[in-house]
Amino acid sequence: MAINWFKYSAPTNFYGLAGKMIPWFAFSAAVLFAIGLYIGFVVAPVDAQQGEFYRIIFIHVPSSILSMFLYLVMAGYAALGLIFNTRLSAMMATAIAPTGALFAFISLWTGALWGKPMWGAWWVWDARLTSELILLFLYLGYIALHASIDDPRRADRAAALLSIVGSVNVPIIYFSVKWWNTLHQGSSIKFTGTSMHIAMQQAMFTVLVACWLYAIAVVLARVRSIILERERNTTWIGELPEVRS
Amino acid sequence: MKKSTLPGLLVLVIRRDLVLAMRRRADVLTTLIFFVMVVSLFPLGVGPEMSMLRKMAPGVLWVAALLSSMLSLGRLFSADYLDGTLEQMMLAPQSLSMLVLGKMTAHWMVSGLPLVLMAPVLGLQFDMPAQALGVLIIGLLLGTPILSMVGAIGAALTLGLRGGGVLLSLLVLPLCIPVLIFGTGAVEAVSTGLSVASHLSLLGALLVLALVFTPWVTAQALRISME
Fold first, then answer.
1. Is A173 in contact with B206 (Cβ distance < 8 A)?
2. Residue A6 belongs to a domain
3. Inter-chain contact B217–A165, Cβ cutoff 8 Å?
4. B190-219 pLDDT per residue, tens
5. Distance from CA of A16 to the nearest CA of B (A)
6. What is the pLDDT of residue A12?
7. How many domains does chain A fold into?
8. Contacts 24+ apart (CB under 8 A), A77-86
9. Of A158, A146, A152, nearest in space to A227 by CA
10. 3-class DSSP state of A191
11. Using CB atoms within 10 A of its CB, is residue B29 exposed (0-12), middle (13-18) or buried (19+)?
12. Preferred mutation among B157, B167, B188, B216 to probe A, highest tally of A CBs within 10 A
């Protein structure tokens, strides 16, 4: 039996598939969030050095990881779109950007909330904080460029090129910021606790998976809207029950 | 048309852009005046204490150079885009990357080089020691071409867009952060007695990387914007 590997790379087919997948991802994300936060806030013990404040890492660490990971995924889809000229890849890249920016923002925000009691300052020019901020700028640049080009095809391709240039630049930026920080001998306070309690690890991991599932659900929902918007003049959209009603 | 060699082509494009810039000298001067003005605003903002100004000088000069190079980037392709020259360049049998490299070089000579030449005077205003000034100049010489080259990618992507100027800075400034860090780091290394060579080597490495990749990426960006 021949399998058509590219069946779902057509927006027509993917639209329906995404619609069926969203509830599953959204539901499991909600369940895992509940479990992870329960372990994090109730089961996990109080940290010896940081007291209750450390519990913010259950949100902070997963969102930082995802903000970086999503940028790579976005650049990957953008590259696919540029190379193979597939419409859906470009739409996926566009759909990922706001979620990535959101996670970068959450990561900075929770970092600030954690920094105030621990470091005594809302903001410290630490290498990781600074590079996360620059990552947020890169996301915002991507979104702004895409938004300011009217022709969707040109917008996709231009933003794709920018995200690829950005992903090449990310390691350079990261290491330069790191060296800059050591040169200035910034804060030497680092979160180097002894090995983490098993409940903390469980909570962090569960929330990470939950964030991941949430990101997939939201991206799929957003890509469905993009498909509807871009293909609004086609017949298959007109025949959809939700459009007709 | 006479078939020109690659270096000949490069010289041709550079000379053309320089002649065009000389016909519109005001544009070149505005960038330079902007640079001088931004730098002069800092002492007014933070106070005339010499010890603090001396410490701030490399950062201030570099940030001002970054901002003023953003100002002139919009003009890199826009005039050629409006009068159709750019379209002819893309149709030309010669490689678009080489043409773009020529335009980048001309842009740097018009907007980057004057800043480098102006920087020592401004550095003296901030009472920078001679050795630090020398390192600052070398750093700017290595770094400002990178700004022109990375900026060209942004200029090509935002070609013909409304609000292109602000958008351009938004896209390009984050990508230029490493240049800023190594450029100011080199000057700071002088005052702390550390090795200057490492920072300058890294800047040189970035310059080589940019030289190899950015003309091609910019050519691709132009193709996307022009289709």
1. no
2. no
3. yes
4. 878 778 888 899 999 999 999 999 999 999
5. 31
6. 82
7. 1
8. A78/A159, A78/A160, A78/A161, A78/A163, A78/A164, A79/A160, A79/A164, A81/A156, A81/A157, A81/A160, A82/A157, A82/A160, A82/A161, A82/A164, A86/A9
9. A152
10. coil
11. exposed
12. B157
Residue whose structure tokens are 């995404």: A18
Q: Which residues of A touch B158 (CB under 8 A)?
A: 145, 148
DSSP B41: H
The closest of B72, B75, B222 to B157, measured between CA atoms, is B222
- The shortest CB-CB distance from A138 to any of B157, B174, B182 is to B174
- Please tell me which of the candidates B177, B182, B221 has its beta carbon nearest to residue A134: B177
3-state secondary structure of A5: coil
The CA distance from A138 to the nearest CA of chain B, in Å, is 7
Residue contacts between A and B (CB atoms, under 8 Å): 69
Query: Tell me: the pLDDT tens digits for B139-164?
Result: 999 999 999 999 999 999 998 887 77
CA atoms of A154 and B197, how far apart (whole Å): 43
pLDDT band at A186 (very low <50, low <70, confident <90, very high): very low
Instruction: Compute, in degrees rounded to 10, the torsion defined by CA atoms B208, B209, B211, B216.
Output: 160
Tokens 């970092």 sit at which residue? A111
Whether residue A162 lies inside any domain: the answer is yes
What's the average model confidence in pLDDT over A49-71? Answer: 85
The DSSP element (H or E) to which B56 belongs, if any, is helix B50-73
- B170 and A177 in contact by Cβ < 8 A? no
A10 in any annotated domain: no
Nearest-by-CA chain B residue for A133? B174
pLDDT of residue A173: 81
> How many whole angstroms from its chain centre is CA B67?
9
Q: Which residue has the tokens 């020398």?
A: B134
Residue A7 within any structural domain of the chain:
no
Q: How many CA atoms lie within 13 A of A47 on its CB side?
A: 20
ipTM, two decimals: 0.86
User: Going along A120-206, which residue ranges are E strands?
Assistant: none
A141 contacts in chain B (CB < 8 Å): 170-171, 174
pLDDT confidence band for A31 (50 / 70 / 90): very high
User: Which domain does A55 fall in, by range?
Assistant: 17-186+193-244
Determine the pLDDT at residue B113.
92
Q: For residue B88, what are the contacts with CB-CB under 8 A and spacing of at least 6?
A: none
3-state SS assignment for residue A196: coil
